[in-house]
Structure formats: structure tokens, C-alpha cells
Design brief:
Number of strands: 32
Distance between the termini: 31 Å
Helix content: 25-40%
Bound molecules: adenosine-5'-monophosphate-propyl ester
Strand order of the largest sheet: 12-11-8-6-7-14-15-23
Radius of gyration: 25 Å
Shape: globular
Structural class: alpha/beta
Strand content: 15-25%
Largest sheet: 8 strands, mixed
Number of helices: 21
Length: 705
Amino acid sequence: MALEQEGVQLSEAQIAVHWKEEEYYFPPAKFIAQANMADPSVFERFSEQNFPECFREYAELLTWDKYWHTTLDSSKPPFWRWFVGGKLNACYNCVDRHLQKYRNKAAFIWVPEPEEEDTKVITYQELYIRVNEFAALLQDVCGLKAGDRITLHMPMVPELPVAMLACARLGVIHSVVFGGFSGQACGERMVDSGSHILVTIDAYSRNGELLDHKLKADQAVEYVEKNGVKVDKVLVWRRYPGKYSSPTPMVDGRDVFVDELLKNYRGASVAPVSMPAEAPLFLMYTSGTTARPKGCQHSTGGYLSYVAGTSKYYQDIHPEDTYWCFADIGWITGHSYIVYGPLALAATSVMYEGVPLYPDPGRPWRIAERLNVNIFHTAPTTIRMLRKAGPDEPSKYNYHFKHMTTVGEPIEPEVWRWYYHVVGKGEAVIVDTWWQTENGGFLGSTLPALHPMKPGSCGPGVLGVYPVIYDELGNEIPKGSGRAGNICIRNPWPGIMQTVWGQPERFVQIYYAKYCRNPQSTDWRDWPYFAGDGAVQAADGYFRILGRVDDVINVAGHRLGTKELESAALTVEEVAEAAAVPVMDELRGRAVEMYIALKPGYSPSQEIEDKVRGAIETIIGKIARPKNVWIVPDMPKTRSGKIMRRVVAGISNFMSPGDITTLANPEIVETIRTQVQAAKLSRGELPRQLSPQELEEIGRYGQVG
Ligand code: PRX
């Protein structure tokens, strides 16, 4: 078959990546004239000589109850402590302090998915009232106090940021679980964080359907209690207050309707608790190389300073702007750039409940037109989807963006150009912001009034962040060499997570062990942060991110661990072995394919394929649903019995499976290839030309075992 592609022997991060250098695009004069940061002296202020004190500039955007005495304490690396001695409250900074000037300005504008339902405006005053009332309820009904954990499993409704800010007011650590995750996934995170309270909602609208969400709360509690942890209360908001929209019954004594209880707290006020800068503000779980998700613990002072600073300089948010980050609060992007960053700057932040294409691909542009949105922020997946379904839609609507963001995945230059010319109408700057759940805020981006844009590249390190690319041995790969390697950050920054909740040794191991020069050293220069992404740096210093170098698949901007997927598949009785691999997907960037070998005595069937899909959906959630499940006679294995994911990943992507001479069973490769590729062709999944970075990514998928 002439279906395979050449050049696949690229398993090392050191390969040379060849692509055309893209041309620069320059920010419009109109943007520069109004930008929050257009003064090039900022680069000097944030230069390495001025580190770490440069970050005072971000911290001073906040209101502190007590000023800090030490900007960075690096005495116990890599457990950095920022703004030590300082005290503040995150909710006060996002709400109370804006009342004097902006009391009746919109804090959130919420757009429900059904277009016939009215948009809701929540002013800073209204937000203040709601947050206080809910904080009083949390204190009273749940007995929560500073340092306790609580889990919020909610979709994109305004009650979610209300609940988050109420927690922040009390110093309670919130752990928001993405609404699309399954009940069991929520339960696992509750157990890990030690939460005894779950906040949920009865239902929400998605793609025109009112989904039952309360069911997931019951499944979560069942999982938690099976694991020996008691759930004290399930607080259930109602999508339509006063009307229960879920078929799942309430459980007496455990489940309560928030809208009913709130009646007892009308006008209640709760003083914001003054928290040390180092107190954790929230946990956000993410996937890595093991089956167990890790709880990234973010601080109050460092995190809030960092998201306020980056929202101001990189998102260019002014209080007069209408800013729409079209992401989900259940991910870090939403925490940092829908809630905490914009609110710290008194912005008007738009929240949309639904999916991009509902009821048609003009929807986002109608929202932008109606609300006069001027800053728009989303992920390449959404951009690709809108480009495919409605390439000419933006021109039909009268909106004007000054600024747009892309985040979460590499963006193809041709998709970038559509975003720029069609969505942005050639009037808006674009920032391509590279960062991760662990980082709190941006790591790589252009500073929009001061740097030109280059499609497909995020730009240089952001202010005060000094990236470097290392090869496997820790040698620096020089810029302009065309060679890829592991992108690392040489220094700590205020938004970096503090630790993995309950597992400090994993924090050190995952992010710092690889390139630490001396584990005894207390000099931050000896502790580069390993991001887990491959990258190349062009001669102009701009980074192009190639994707994960660990066992993580980035599906539509969501991180899924291959081990998590494989362990879910292994819960199916008939399954003996499982391997999860990424397959290039036109819309979602990557999709998941599962390879399954059965236990003796079982033969392949549609039923087993469905069980694997079902198990993944139940244990992780619908977002992880594999595109294909291939039940194969055997897995390609090394002589020591490890499954070679790279080989099946190659087959799934119509690439050469690479070197198979080290396999114990090389003959199986051709059998699998014929089976899988014939089935793909009959399903209309045709091979396509892969880019150099896609080839590189497939080539590096590791072994299972
Ligand atoms: O591989 C990088 C990719 O997304 C990963 C982080 O995923 P998550 O923790 O879910 O956070 C997503 C939103 C911050 C990174 O390791 N990634 C993120 N932003 C970009 C990106 N890849 C290329 N370009 C980006 N702008």
C-alpha cells in the first residue's frame, strides 16, 4: 500500500523540524494607541536582572491587607513562596473593591444557550450580594471554614463563579470539576481532595438539550462513599429557580435546593477572610502520565497577581471593555481568564452556557454583535469548528474585536489566518498564549502592542518568564537551529502551582527532577521547570509548540492521560490489554483511538467495543469517547512484553509504524495494519498529509508498561 508517509523515525525530541517560516503581522495603530502596555521599557523592568522584584508590578495591581516582606522565598526549592508575609482576600479583590467605582457596571453577562431565553446581567453590586449570601450559607449549612475543600461540579452558569468567589471569601479551597466529566471522575477528585460537600445543578442546556446533571452527583457520591469518605451535603442549584428540571430524585437529609435555602440568607454579609498570600486558593485536577489525576494547588497572592497582570498586559483588558472568553470555567483557562483575572481588573466578562454551533454557526457572532464584545478568547478547536461550519458567518454580523486570543493547542497557520482576516476582520491583534493548568497563567505569548504576530508561534516567553529548550541531556538547543527539544522555564513565576495536592514528591518528580542541576541547591537557577511540551525556537526568539512529550493526548484542548484511558478500558471484563493513541483529527486536533486485545476465550464483537466506549464514558466522561476501538489479535510488544504504542499510533495515522525490529512479534504489525486501515478506508477516514510536527508527535508515543 502506498499509504504510509516517510520520515517517521523521529522518536527523539532532537529531530530537525522543517517548515516554512511564517510572515509577521503587525498590530494596528488603533490598538497600540489604547493598549495597557505599549511602552518598551517594560522589557527592561522584567529583565532577568530585575527578577524577582519585577513581579511587584503585578502584585501591586491588587489590594493587600498587609504588604509582603519577601517577594520570592526560594529557600525550599521547588516549593517557591511568593509575596511572603502579605495578606489579602481574592474575593475582596475581585468584587468588593470595585463597588465604589463600578457598583452597577456588569461583572458578568450570562448568555443562556436557548436563544429565546434572556441574557442575564450581573452587576458588581449584584455579584457582591449573591456571593455574600452564598458564603453565609456555606458557613452555616455546611460549616465550612478557611482551608477546607469543596467540590463544584457545574456547567457554565453564573452560579459557578458565585460559588467560587464565595469560597474565596471564606478561604475555602474550591476544586471545580469540568461539568462534562462523569460522576465517577468527579467522585475521584472529591476523594483525592478530601471534599465532603458537593455543589451541583439539576440540569443545563447543551446543544439544544436539557441534560440531567443531578444524576452525576449521585454517581459521584456513590463513588466517594464506596471509598470510605462521607459526603455531608449536596447543594443543588436549579437551572430554573423554583422548578426542578432533573428526573433524578433528591436524597432526603443530604440534598438541598440552594435557591430555597438562600431565602434564609437574604442580605447576609460575611467579612472577607484575610488570607496569607501562600494560602491555597483552589485545586484544579489535570492528567499526566499516571492513571491518577493530579490536583494542581494554586496560591492566593501569587496566582491572583499573575492572572491580574497577564490579563492587563496580554489580554489588554480595561474596565470599559466587554471581554468574552469562550472557554469553560471547569478548565484553568476559565478560572484565570473568565473569573479571577478579568474580575480583578473590574472587567465585564461574558459567559456563554452552550456549544459554538447551536443553533447554527452564526451564534457566537450574534452574541458578539449584541453584547458589543471587543475582546474574544477561544481555542483552536472552536475556531476550526466555526471555520468549517460557517466560513463566511462572521462577515454577516456587525461586531468589531480589538483583540483575540487562541489557547490550548497549536493552531495551524491557515486556521490562524482565517481567525485574523475573517473573525477579526483584519482589525484585531491576536495573542497565541501557550501555558498549562500547572502554570496559573500565560508562559509564552507576544505582548500585543509591542511584538508582531507570527501564525502558528506563540511568541517569546512572557514578561518575567525565561524559557529555554533542552535536549534529553540538558544541553541548551540554540534558537534558530531548527532542532526541537523540551521546552522548560528557567525561573519560578508567581502563577506556578505550589504542589500536587497531597503528593509533594510527585510535584518534584514530574516537573523538576528531569533537569535539576543540584537537588541541594537553593538557587532557583538550578531548578528549571519541565513543561512536558516539545518546541522549537526560531532565530527571532519565537517558540513554536509541538505538543506533549509525555503520555498525554490533547483532545480539543483537553488533556487526557493515556494511562487513564487504558485503565478505564481494562475495567471491561473481556479486555486483557489496552493501548490509547492519538489520531490526527481535522476539528479536534487529536482524537483518541483504543487498541484492545481480549482475554483467551473471547472473540471480537461490537458489544465489547461498545463496552469499552461505555467504560471510558462512565469513568472519565464523554469528552474522552474514542473515535475508534480496534480489537486486535495481539498487541505489538517488545521482548520484555511492553506494548509499543508508537507502532499502533503509526498505523492509526497511516504512517509507517517505524522500526519494528525490536518487537517480539513483528508479524502482528501487518495484520493490524491491514485490519485497521481497511476499516478506516471503508469508514471514509482517509489518510492525509501530516505536518512535520504531527509526524514527530506520533513518532514519539511511548510504550505501555
Ligand atoms: O501541550 C500544550 C497545550 O496544552 C497543554 C496544556 O493543557 P492544559 O493544562 O489543559 O491547559 C490548557 C490551557 C492553558 C500544553 O502542555 N497548549 C496550551 N496552549 C497552547 C498549547 N499548545 C500550543 N499552543 C498553545 N498556545
